[in-house]
Amino acid sequence: MPQFSRALFTVFLITGAVLIAATTGRLPPQVASHFGAAGTPNGWMDRGAYLAFMLGFAVAMPLAVVLPLSVLSRRHVDRINLPHRDYWLAPPRREATLRYLGAHACLLGALLVALVVGVHFTLLEANAAQPPRLPGPLFGTLVALFPVAMAAWVLTLVLHFRRKG
Hints:
Layout: H1 2-23, E1 30-35, E2 41-46, H2 47-75, H3 85-88, H4 91-128, H5 136-162
Antiparallel strand pairs: 1-2
């Protein structure tokens, strides 16, 4: 699982960045980038700033989550907080536990990339309308699916470490 998760995260990261970069040209020079509750724009940015902002969120944010969870946790095992911590971090299981945590971090990173790409495509759709308007059903689906995916991610993590052996 660790290599699959790492590969999946890498594919999501690269594909997400490429999709955002390749489709930002479809946006107008002034991008409606923030919307009020009624779906009408209340914040704008130029296309270049939007591209930098979205690439930062699609690449830097997931990396800022994945790297500490998968790499730095190996250097600071004493700071890892798990149920049955002594059992899971005992020498016979430590390496497998750290691999699992790293793989799970990569899955979280992939979810974050997917969220940012989903927001980007929602904003592409919003800016294609005249006047710009946030597409409620598309945005609502995104807002509903991400917490469900996060709940599944957390549940999987909790269930893995709830048992001893």
